[in-house]
Predict the structure.
Amino acid sequence: MDKAKALELALAQLEKSYGKNAVMRLGKATKMNVAAIPTGCLSLDVALGIGGVPRGRIVEIYGTESSCKTTIAMHIAAEAQRQGGTAAIIDAEHAVDPVYAKALGVNVDDLLISQPDTGEEALEITDALVRSGAVDVVIIDSVAALVPKAEIEGEMGDTHVGIQARLMSQALRKLGGNLSKSDTCAIFINQLREKIGVMFGNPEVTPGGRALKFWASVRLEVRRGESIKAGNEVLGARTKVKVSKN
């Protein structure tokens, strides 16, 4: 049996076992172009290269406090709704303001919201929404607030070394493939913390372990700039966004 025939038999067997397009030739792959959801900011869409955040992928938006991380995510949710899609937010911080969301252009009547009690519950709900194939964007706000059940049920002062990192790693392994199949964009909002005792290098670190850095196709670092004023009245603030991974 020649190699070409052996390969065709192997491909036929794989397709029978795992479904159509289990193995494809790269040049003939049917899904090469990545669709995007606009961010609502033209300059950021240009910086991302595809006109927004990619569908079917994981996006991390991280930064210091009050740097407009949630604002950017809400703009993306509003754009997804304008395209006729469905948006959901997993409000682990229990801090979503419907009035502010509406002011950003979000249709709050159609926005799905969940306020879970534990990190496990939040990530299970996220995975269920993704697997449904009916949600275009899911926002998880925030990674730091995804507190494992063991930590919530434990006593104050108990040590739970690496428990959140393990939870995130396990959840992201499940989410990665499901997102690709459903074309859903998952946006994880994260904070910046400082390591204690760092003498050299950048002391800033994001909570939740390293798994999110690996699984995220896009990482946006957000920092608050100068305030926009009219006389002494503060009207808003400029925000600087760095595409740290794309």
